[in-house]
Amino acid sequence: MFLTQSFPEGPRAPRDRILIVLHQERSSPGRIGLGLMARGFRLDIRRPALGDPLPASLDGYAGAVIFGGPMSANDPDDFIRREIDWIAVPLKEKVPFLGVCLGAQMLARQLGATVAPHAHGCGEIGYYPLRPTAAGERMFHWPRQVYHWHSEGFALPTGAELLAEGEMFPNQAMKVGPCAYGIQFHPELTFAMMNRWAHSASQRVLPPGAQPGATHVANRFVYDGPVRAWLDAFLDHWSGREKPAGAVTDRSVPAQSAI
């Protein structure tokens, strides 16, 4: 079970914590959180949308992850602006940062790039092809299909390196500086989370280009193995720690509100 934890801050704090930023009361860091805990990290979970503060410094932290949510990086809410501004902290301090979906779009906004809907109102909801760039191929072996839930995409910021591309939304993964990454897709979903998201898709009127909820779980059985392998390799690289053999990173987690 993931619980919000607070740990002492300051120059003597060991770098064994990862800051986790979520956007809904029942949101979960999923396989990313499980993978980081398997590597020996403690999770400091904060929800700025519900009033949690963000640390002024990441001294004592080994990294920070901002996850997705139903809101837009263009929304006028105070917490959205605070999170976008706060991303300057890991960038300045060169602490590993990962933005997932909304978190990637916030990273783009922090760097002066735009976030915008698809020109024809389309959305990526379900599994879609992913094409690594030459730079991406040098870093990881990427899955060829990944799971999405979004109807906005980010422009590539000046100085960022594009690592993977897509058809509907061209920019799917980027690297900024030595250790900041943004990904438009969702490798964090456990099987339980996938079932909830797929059920939500089946209950909604979806935008053009979205896949019906009934196909989401079926496609997971086809495509999830390479996604899991990519996530393990990415977390090894990003965190600087390898996952112990046999560690479980896909067990059930507390219910997450559908995005």
3D structure, described in words:
- This protein is 30% helix and 21% strand.
- By secondary structure, the chain is an alpha/beta fold.
- It has a single domain (17-239), classed as 3-Layer(aba) Sandwich (Rossmann fold).
- Strands 2-1-3-4-12-11-10-7 form an 8-stranded mixed beta sheet. It has a two-stranded antiparallel ribbon with strand order 5-9.
- A hairpin with a 3-residue loop joins strand 11 (171-176) and strand 12 (180-183).
- Helix 2 crosses helix 4 and helix 6 runs antiparallel to helix 7 (213-239).
- The two termini are 20 Å apart.
- Mean pLDDT is 91; it is low at 1-12 and 252-259.
For the record, the CATH class is: Alpha Beta
Terminal CA distance: 20 Å
Strand order of the main beta sheet, please? 2-1-3-4-12-11-10-7
Percent in strands: 15-25%
Number of H/I helices: 7
CATH superfamily: Class I glutamine amidotransferase (GATase) domain
Number of strands: 12
What's the CATH topology name? Answer: Rossmann fold
**Name given to the CATH architecture:** 3-Layer(aba) Sandwich
Assign an overall shape. globular
Give the uncertain stretches in residue-range form. 1-12, 252-259
DSSP helix fraction: 25-40%
Tell me the radius of gyration: 17 Å
Protein name: Glutamine amidotransferase
GO molecular function, one term: transferase activity
Organism: Segnochrobactrum spirostomi
InterPro entries: ChyE-like, Class_I_gatase-like, GATASE
Main attributes?
259 residues; Rossmann fold; disordered N terminus; 7 helices; eight-stranded mixed β-sheet
Brief overview:
This protein is an alpha/beta fold. It has helices spanning 30-38, 78-86, 88-93, 102-110, 134-139, 191-202, 213-239; strands spanning 17-21, 42-46, 61-66, 97-100, 115-117, 124-129, 131-132, 145-150, 152-154, 161-165, 171-176, 180-183.
